[in-house]
Design goal:
The complex is a heterodimer. Chain A is α+β, with helices and mostly antiparallel strands. In chain A, 41% of the residues lie in helices and 20% in strands. Chain A has helices spanning 2-18, 22-33, 38-45, 53-90, 109-123, 137-140, 181-190, 231-246, 299-304, 321-329, 336-339, 342-345; strands at residues 127-128, 134-135, 159-165, 172-176, 195-204, 216-226, 252-256, 262-271, 288-297, 313-320. In chain A, helix 5 crosses helix 10 (321-329). Chain B is built from 21 helices and 40 strands. In chain B, strands 3, 4, 5, 6, 7, 10 and 11 form a seven-stranded antiparallel beta sheet that branches. In chain B, strands 28-31-32-36-35-34-33 form a seven-stranded mixed beta sheet, with helices on both faces. A five-stranded mixed beta sheet of chain B has the order 13-16-19-20-21, with no helix packed on it. Classes of the chains: A alpha+beta, B alpha+beta. At the A-B interface, strand 3, strand 4, strand 5, strand 6 and helix 8 of A face strand 2, helix 11, helix 13, helix 15 and strand 28 of B.
């Protein structure tokens, strides 16, 4: 009987080893350990044994049962592991394929430039002010010390529209603002000093489009009105702005210029960012690139705004956002900004 | 304003101990920006002046001649192809071994069998001109054997300055020298202003009808001039370096004096003048034929020089054809009337522009010519004319009204003001010396804080305020000496704007995050595009469009979006998502035609829904892609989601258009472009667009938080069959109302039409989610609510439960 038991156990272990599926494993468990299973039969046979033999055989059967249970469990674990292994293998992906998503858009490079500049100034306490693009003669010219027939109006190549404003006996054509200075005038009309603002926006000049001109472009003008504001403050502000914008300790040059609304007036050049002052085609071999105009606001302008020019002084500056953007990215033809080629725009995804 | 001038000429006026680079830097630093410095001639050598002593035809070529030329020591034989070679002229000989521009080396060689020992050069071959007028013929004072570069001073540069409009006093070599002298504390060579010896008594009667416009007019008759004399080489060369073409000696002299002194002059043919000269306003229907062959219909307000027959010149701008100097061999001008006048800038400004004319004279007069300069200029011109064209001068006649001449007044200059505006302290003696050097009058005063009183000179039209004086101080002191300081603002804290309080991002951020590319297009558009998109809008027109095909201001962002889409579609782009942010313009309907300027955001999608990828076959984007993006945008901006109301728009598909509104206020429109317009853009896919008026979108006030329920929610789904004409939001509104306050969420989870559903109807799957804050919901009460829903949907829309 002992030999029989050994045979059963051996056979069972052979069966377990050869099994490849959980289903077969369950059948094996039933075959040997189920109610009608071979080991159960053995247990029934115990009754026919002597009382001395019973415990011995009983213990051997118990041991055989335990052995088979362990073998079954181990086999089950192995089968589970193999199956998981197989599932994992089957579920493998090509992780190099593209993800599922919408394309990503972009802000126009000029918008990005304006935002960077707004960030630089708002962090320093400036407010952003805007105004209408179709302006009246007063806000665009007269209030800026450019009265009618002022020869410097010719510097502006103004575009006019078919509409008029003003008093009935003195109607003036409306125009597309030639700078964002009228927005500054509107702030000074409604707000007492101290004022520190920047005014970004579209402006228009009757320039035929070429590599360095477009009839529409974007300007950012700054204005600070307060007590004790001097040209030294203007120079310091402009220089620290340029260094913040170009993210280098770029050198600037201030030279006398002329704007009817500022006195003294200055033109600001920065060291050419292509050749670092060595002289190249981009800077007409001068080593310098013109970036902005600025100056101390003319007392006449302040007085027209009912600001006491003895108590308060002011500086103003203005530059083309498109031009700064072009300088920064090395764009040599500003017309690309308004072609809006997607291949161009996509390079400005953020 | 551009000024081109010979550097050598400037250095002749003022002895500057500085290099060219230093000179350029200094000019730029004092506000006379140097744009460029261009050599007046390319490098060449071995070219000498020769006199042509013999010219005979080439035996075997009709167009060539064989010339014998004399360099003062030796004679050379050269073959020449120019028609203007003749005995007696002085010409430029490139000797054997000479190096000409473009690395041309001259050798002795046979030309059609005849030995040529050198070459007679044209101005083109020497790089002096672009116009080929045969060989270069030098003036008669030339000396044989002299090196051409030395004779013409060709080792010189043309200085190109950008002069700001306030500094027309620097538009001459004398003006520049005066400025440089002041800066460098040196003196200027005086202009030769010896008075001409009066040879005849003839004078012209001049009447200043409008003496406010012309407060000073000087005239002189010169008889017996030879207008066919040759302008000397030195003068031609100086004019050339100022980009002025030599014409004939009389006009060359007036142009030369303009460049030398800054005073425009005009010479009339005396014998073409009828009666006396008047300076007056043009009257109605007068015409004037100009030197340029153009005939002007004179506008009222134009100042003219007239004789008894009518206008003969547009004062201060351009002379007339009738009285112009004539060089025709048949009847050349012999007697001239020379004008040197001061015109009030206000009488000239804008006039040339109105006629489409640009002249140096107008540019000078409209910004202000030195009103003390006329006498000096007419004497200088007379001296030069007598030297070149000969003749007998009459006396200078001056007609003037001193009361109308500009008045220069004293201006106080305060030390405190300099400090305040420039942020620097300057020494009072230094300031006074500066102004004196610049030609300003300086007078002492006892007034407190006032350094001195200063009166600008007659050549400065840009100084009438203390701030103008302070600019002069800064300019001469040096802008670079002003320190760099940063103003300190008082820190003031304020609430963020309503918009930024709720969302840090802008519509542009939201849309770019949703895959849209921002574009910027011109605010002026094509008229057809305008009409197609906004047929009912009254356009704002440009009176003179800068781009001929774009005469009107946009009343919608759609033309720019559509044009950009087409541009990109034609560049193989098939997944297009664009937006633009900007102003649109139109007139309101109604008698007062009020101008409307609105800020809008507009978007467009066309082509594929997704970027091309392996995930699934790509489908065309449709209305719901656009709608989803707009809903997403509003959600990202924490704005109230707009209601979508079926609507109409002339440019959009009548069945796929929605008006967007918030709180009953219309904020914009979205939909598919009308197929009639889609056909114009030859792209295969439909185009979806939206446009929202940003100013009309209300920002939300601060949010009220809702409590979160701790009890489970219960979901019930139903499918109903209902007429396809019933809009989803009608069903939802009805169901929401019927279900009552315990309904937490309601969604459309399925939509089906087709087999099994009656034609004209569709099956709509509705998902209801119920939840209470304080308790578990019972099945029975939910069944009751669902029954109520079905009943209401049936009553309102004859909806039935789908079996």
């Amino acid at each position: 009987m002992a030999a029989e038991l050994d045979d059963i156990v051996k056979q069972a272990q052979r069966d377990i080893i050869q099994t490849a599926t959980t289903t077969d494993l369950r059948q094996i468990a039933a075959k040997y350990m189920g109610k009608q299973g071979l080991l159960s039969q053995q247990r029934k046979n115990i009754r026919a044994l002597s009382s001395e033999e019973r415990p011995v055989v009983g213990a051997r059967i118990q041991a055989a049962l335990k052995l088979l249970e362990d073998s079954l469990a181990a086999k089950q674990d192995a089968l589970d592991a193999a199956r998981l292994e197989q599932t994992l293998a089957e579920e493998g992906l090509d992780v190099t394929l593209a993800g599922r998503r919408q394309s990503v858009g972009s802000l126009h490079p000029v918008t990005q430039t304006i935002r960077q500049i707004e960030d630089i100034f708002t962090a320093a306490g400036y407010q952003v002010a805007t105004g209408p693009e179709i302006e009246d003669d007063y806000h665009n010219f007269t209030a800026l010390n450019l009265p009618e027939h002022h020869p410097a109006r010719a510097m502006h190549d103004t575009l006019y529209v078919d509409s008029y404003a003003g008093s009935p006996d003195n109607l003036k054509p409306l125009l597309l603002r030639t700078h964002t200075s009228p927005a500054q005038i509107r702030v000074m009309e409604s707000q007492a000093p101290p004022i520190q603002i920047i005014c970004p926006g579209r402006v228009y000049r009757a320039d035929d489009p070429d590599a360095s001109h477009t009839p529409m472009f974007h300007q950012i003008e700054g204005l600070v009105v307060a007590e004790g504001i001097s040209m030294a403050h203007l120079k310091g502000t402009v220089l620290s702005f340029l260094q913040a914008f170009f993210e280098t300790s770029v050198e600037a040059r201030f030279r006398p210029s002329y704007f009817p609304f500022t006195e003294p007036s200055a033109e600001v050049d920065v060291q050419c960012t292509h050749c670092w002052g060595q002289g190249c085609q981009a800077c007409s071999r001068t080593g310098w690139v013109e970036v902005m105009g600025c100056g101390m606001v003319h007392p006449k302008v302040l007085e027209m705004m009912d600001i006491d020019s003895e108590q308060f002084s002011a500086f103003a500056f203005g530059f083309g956002a498109d031009r700064l953007c072009a300088l920064r990215y090395g764009i040599d033809d500003v017309r690309v900004f308004f072609n809006n080629h997607l291949h161009f725009l996509r390079q400005f995804c953020h | 304003m551009d000024l081109k001038i010979s550097e050598a000429w400037l250095r002749e006026k003022i002895s500057l101990d500085m290099s060219q680079a230093q000179l350029a830097r200094q000019l730029t630093q004092i506000g006379l920006a140097v744009e460029s410095l261009t050599p007046v001639a390319p490098p060449f050598n071995g070219v000498v002046i020769v006199k042509v002593v013999e010219v005979r035809p080439h035996p075997s070529a009709d167009s060539l001649s064989i010339c014998k030329v004399d360099d003062g020591k030796n004679k050379h034989t050269v073959v020449c192809g120019a028609a203007n070679v003749r005995v007696g002229i002085y010409a430029a000989l490139a000797t054997v071994g000479a190096q000409l521009p473009d690395n041309l080396i001259i050798t002795a060689r046979k030309i059609r069998g005849q030995l040529s020992s050198g070459m007679l050069c044209s101005a083109v071959e020497l790089g002096l001109s672009a116009d080929n007028n045969g060989i270069l013929v030098l003036s008669e004072d030339a000396e044989s054997g002299v090196d051409l570069r030395a004779w013409l001073q060709l080792d010189d540069y043309s200085l190109h300055l950008d002069v700001t409009p306030n500094r027309v006093d620097c538009l001459s070599v004398t003006g520049l020298a005066r400025e440089l002298a002041a800066v460098n504390e040196i003196s200027v060579a005086p202009v030769d202003d010896q008075l001409a010896t009066i040879a005849i008594d003839d004078t012209m009667k001049v009447t200043l009808v409008d003496s406010e416009a012309c407060p000073r007019y000087l005239g002189r008759i010169i008889r017996g001039v030879n207008v066919n004399a040759k302008t000397p080489d030195w003068m031609r060369e100086r004019l050339r370096r100022s980009n002025i073409n030599p014409i004939h000696p009389v006009v060359d002299v007036t142009n030369y004096v303009l460049r030398e002194l800054g005073q425009p002059l005009h010479a009339f043919d005396l014998n073409k003048l009828t009666g006396s000269v008047q300076v007056r306003q043009a009257v109605a229907n007068e015409q004037l034929a100009l030197l340029t062959q153009q005939t002007l219909d004179l506008q009222a307000g134009s100042l003219v020089i007239a004789d008894d027959s009518g206008p003969i010149a547009l004062a201060g701008i351009m002379g007339g054809k009738k009285t112009a100097i004539n060089t025709d061999a048949g009847s050349p001008t012999t007697d001239i009337f020379l004008e040197s006048a001061y015109f009030n800038p206000m009488a000239i400004v804008g006039r040339a522009r109105n006629y489409g004319l640009v002249t140096d004279a107008a540019q000078c007069y409209e910004h202000g010519v030195d009103f003390e300069l006329q006498f000096k200029a007419i004497e200088r011109a007379t001296a030069l004319l007598l030297e070149i064209v000969g003749g007998q001068p009459g006396p200078v006649c001056e007609v003037s009204n001193p009361e109308c001449l500009p008045v220069r007044r004293w201006i106080n200059l305060r030390a405190s003001r300099i400090k305040k505006l420039l942020g620097i302290d300057v020494d009072s003696a230094t300031v006074q010396a500066m102004f004196k050097r610049l030609g300003f009058a300086v007078q002492q005063t006892d007034e407190h804080d006032v350094i001195c009183q200063i009166k600008p000179p007659s050549h400065r039209f840009d100084i009438d305020h203390e701030a103008d004086l302070i600019e002069e101080v800064a300019r001469l002191y040096g802008y670079d000496k002003i320190p760099y300081e940063v103003p300190h603002f008082k820190a003031s804290l304020s609430s963020p704007s309503k918009a930024t309080r709720i969302s840090r991002i802008s519509p542009a951020d939201a849309l770019s995050g949703l895959g849209y590319h921002e574009i910027i297009t011109y605010s002026f558009v094509n008229e057809d595009d305008f009409r197609q998109i906004s047929p009912d809008a009254i356009p704002v027109r440009l009176t003179k469009p800068v781009m001929a095909d774009r005469p009107v201001m946009r009343a919608s962002l759609l033309p720019g979006l559509l044009a950009t889409m087409t541009y990109n579609f034609h560049r193989q782009q098939r997944h297009i998502r664009l937006f633009e942010l900007g102003a649109v313009f139109e007139y309101a309907a109604g008698a007062d035609r009020q101008l409307l300027q609105q800020q809008r955001i507009g978007g467009l999608i066309a082509g594929y829904r997704w970027p091309e990828s392996w995930h699934q076959p790509n489908e065309s984007a449709d209305f719901y892609d656009l709608k989803g993006d707009i809903e997403q945008m509003f959600a990202l901006l924490s704005l109230e989601s707009p209601a979508w109301i079926p609507g109409k728009h002339s440019a959009l598909h009548p069945g796929q258009t929605a008006q967007l509104s918030i709180q009953g206020q219309s904020i914009g429109v979205a939909g598919r472009l009308h197929p009639r317009l889609e056909a114009k853009f030859d792209i295969k896919n439909s185009i979806y667009v939206f446009e929202i008026n940003i100013e009309n979108v209300p920002t939300l006030s601060s949010k009220q938080l809702q409590p979160v329920s701790a009890f489970p929610s219960v979901r019930r789904d139903i499918a109903i069959v209902v007429s396809s004409a019933v809009w989803a939001n009608q069903l939802l509104e009805c169901a929401r109302h019927a279900a009552g306050p315990l309904l937490n969420e309601l969604i459309v989870f399925d939509l089906y039409a087709g087999e099994g559903i009656e034609q004209g109807k569709r099956s709509v799957g509705l998902g209801f989610i119920f939840q209470d804050l304080t308790r578990n919901l019972q099945d029975a009460e939910i069944e009751l609510m669902m029954e109520q829903v079905l009943k209401m949907l049936h009553n309102e829309f004859q909806a039935v439960l789908r079996m």
